[in-house]
Amino acid sequence: MIVSRAAIVVLAAAFATIAQAADCPRPGTLGTSRVLAVDAARYPRVGLKSFPQTLPLQDHEVVLTFDDGPTSPMTEQVLAALAEECVRATFFLVGRPASHVPDLVRRIAAEGHTVGHHTWSHRNLAHIKSSETVEEIDRGMAAVDEIDRGMVADEVALHGSTWSRPSTPFFRFPYFESTPALLDLLESRGIVVFGTDLWASDWELMTPARELQLITERLKVAGKGIILFHDPRPQTAAMMPAFLRYLRENHYRVVHVVPATLAANYDGTP
Question: N or C: which end of the chain has fewer CB within 10 A?
């Protein structure tokens, strides 16, 4: 399992717990300030852009999240920027592209990042048949979850109808489009649904400098929060070193989120 590299023992507590992140071997980097274990029973849905509740972050704390990957070479560029600053993030992967680059998925996990789920093919789940929505969710989870076991895409597809709970129970809806029935389904499975608190609007064409300006201005207003990026976007990959430097120079702290069920004694190392 991918997340088994990020886990030490199973956590018995029913609520979110907090651990210290591992020290960065390079002094003067941004680093990861702490690890926040997220329990679906307490935080079934988070992100103020979609829901009334978000994660319990302090002022100047941010959670970095990336959607729609993995896509080479942009995802590798984002990973390099994060590694340079000793930062841990969460990647919400789409199953179909993930199945084409299994080594990259394994690299994301091996470098200590959290691997979440973003459906099989990024369809808008609010506008397709209910039977197809469950297949999109389950097949995407199965594809990402089984990569570490050496299975190929055709074998993974066999799990779609029965894959009820992934190893990392974090999910984000494409386009943030959900339905009450799907939200209830995921909550019943103990899966945390992530929205976001602010975003870089990087689905739009813009220069890296313009994206940096947008996200830093929005962060100044928000003060903290879950931030959404898209690692397949070239301008995001190009901008990431400057954004992390901005966080460091302006005394922001990065919080790494992990599932509560896999968080005991977790120290941020793969």
Answer: C
| Torsional sign, CA 116, 120, 123, 126 | negative
How far is it, in rounded angstroms, from Cα 46 to Cα 38? 10
Torsion angle, CA of 74/176/172/144, rounded to 10 degrees? -60
Burial 176-185 (b: 16+ CB within 10 A, else e): bebeeebbeb
Q: What is the pLDDT along the chain (270 residues), one digit of tens a residue?
A: 333 333 322 222 223 334 556 678 888 999 999 999 999 999 999 999 999 999 999 999 999 999 999 999 999 999 999 999 999 999 999 999 999 999 999 999 999 999 999 999 999 999 999 889 999 999 999 999 888 555 444 444 433 434 567 889 999 999 999 999 999 999 999 999 999 999 999 999 999 999 999 999 999 999 999 999 999 999 999 999 999 999 999 999 999 999 997 665 455 443
Antiparallel, parallel or unpaired: β 225-230 and 18-20:
unpaired
- Write down the pTM of the prediction: 0.87
CATH class for the region spanning 2-262: alpha beta
Of 264, 196, 224, the residue nearest 33 (C-alpha): 224
**CB environment 95-114: b (16+ within 10 A), e (fewer):** bebbbebbebbebbbebbbb
Q: List CB contacts of 61: < 8 A, sequence separation 6 or more.
A: 33, 224, 252, 253, 254, 255
- Residues with Cβ within 8 Å of 150's Cβ and at least 6 positions away in sequence, in order, are none
8-state DSSP, 25: S
